[in-house]
Design brief:
The protein is mostly helical. It has one domain: YggX-like, CATH 1.10.3880. The chain is built from 3 helices and 2 strands. The chain binds zinc ion (ZN). Zinc ion (ZN) binds at residues 6, 8-9, 11, 13, 34, 36-37.
Length: 78
Amino acid sequence: MATIVCARCGKSAEALDNPPMGGQLGATIQERVCANCYAEWLSQQNLLINHYALNMSDSDDRKKLIEVMKEYLGLVKV
Ligand SMILES: [Zn+2]
């Protein structure tokens, strides 16, 4: 398993085994966010989806969630 310096927690930590989603963003997350921080995001994401009643089949809602995710993971400059 690869070790990376995480953009969110700043520690050297284990990367995800696989990109968590397709495309450039998935590759960026695998390269820059540790597995622990991504796991934290996943539980945070569920809270947000419930709290804001986001509809993941709605592309505007998906975009909104992606923006929040980048901020949460320290990837806003990507
Ligand atoms: Zn981290």
